[in-house]
């Protein structure tokens, strides 16, 4: 997927997640949406930095990189929702485009993708992006409601990380 698709995905997702995390039509929902939109869009833009540094769809499209973005807010108390942007970038590349991504780089250069995608220049690219975003929103809603709150207080985990000298 191209930059336009990733930004569209991130903006729609952040808007939807604002309502998932802070249901309502009030200032608290608007505040939450604003709070999560910036890190999610930044995260969604990040993996394609490997078009300039490293090898595209390998260097910054891997599970170890996602792990770093998951650990970062716990260790540094910053960039809390950025991992959502990185994760949805991967999902959109895997599901929405023809070429896969090297999930296990640097251990393996094999690229994983679904045969479902369209080429990044396809006239259906925006439609595919919107459909993928809707499915992601449903999944995040289910996780937030039934598994773990997306706005979980990470301070206890941060303190534990600090205790281990991180
Ligand atoms: Zn990408």
TrEMBL record:
Pfam family of the protein (one): YdjM
Gene Ontology molecular functions: hydrolase activity
Domain of life: Archaea
Keywords: Hydrolase
Name the record gives this protein: Metal-dependent hydrolase
